[in-house]
Specification:
The chain has 248 residues and is α+β, with helices and mostly antiparallel strands. It is 24% helix and 37% strand. The protein has an eight-stranded antiparallel barrel, surrounded by five helices.
């Protein structure tokens, strides 16, 4: 059964229906697994989650352009597992045409806080307005340049109690001005909820299917494939996992 057929078994909800579960201040838990497990997973989830549908489409395309310092300060902070670390990106929600400048903070309590402003399009460089907004959120001046594109398709679910979002990302590709690559055989799922102690049907099902949680950044993992000489020793186990999952 293909993915679209699986999604027909879910009740469809709109953006306005899930507005109360925006979770801009949240706890994230990621999972990665081979694409061949996705159909079975969706079959099991249909009784517990609703699926987001926008203009009749349940799989939305996302384009993201990440910015970092010249010395890759955001990447290094993540690699070194520093608390209160940031990411800066522009994200286009292709189906709706909406584009945002997003600044994410992972704080010392393990929560992800996302701030964003609407912009007209993804730019090649930061305007004064963009720089002022980033300075306001991060609290200091930074010289940031565009690093790489990370694009994927996303299916968004909300549990029937409206307490948790579940996103499933597929067809992930990445590129910079020199190299490109993909994780097209890999699915990245993420639970977004208010508190880490909340139970999750997806977590229980994933465990049953031997899909374990992993702390993973699409930006960091794709950076390593695009720039293989970059510092990466603390990502060794994650790289081994990704390489194993990439094998068909």
């Amino acid at each position: 059964m293909n993915i679209n057929e699986c999604l027909e078994k879910f009740k469809a909800v709109s953006l306005s229906d899930i507005k109360s579960v925006s979770l801009m201040d949240r706890v994230d838990v990621k999972f990665v697994f081979r694409r061949l497990k996705l159909s079975q997973l969706l079959e099991e989830l249909a009784d517990f989650y609703n699926v987001l549908e926008v203009d009749g489409v349940k799989i939305q395309s996302y384009k993201s352009l990440y910015y970092d310092t010249i010395d890759k300060g955001f990447f290094i902070a993540h690699h070194n597992n520093r608390v209160n670390r940031n990411k800066v990106r522009f994200r286009e929600y292709v189906g709706s045409g909406l584009v945002f400048l997003e600044v994410k903070l992972k704080n010392n309590k393990g929560k992800t806080i996302k701030n964003r402003i609407k912009v007209d399009a993804i730019p090649d460089s930061l305007s004064n307005e963009h720089q002022n907004y980033i300075r306001k959120i991060i609290g200091k001046d930074l010289v940031l340049t565009s690093q790489q594109w990370v694009n994927f398709d996303r299916i968004t679910f909300v549990d029937k109690m409206n307490t948790e979002r579940l996103t499933i990302d597929l067809n992930l590709t990445f590129s910079n001005q020199i190299n490109s690559g993909s994780f097209e055989q890999i699915i990245v799922a993420e639970i977004k909820k208010e508190r880490s102690g909340n139970s999750s049907k997806f977590s229980r099902l994933a465990k049953k299917m031997h899909i374990l949680p992993v702390r993973l950044s699409k930006y960091c993992m794709s950076m390593i494939y695009l720039e293989p000489n970059i510092k990466q020793n603390r990502f060794k186990e994650k790289l081994l996992l990704i390489n194993k999952l990439k094998q068909v």
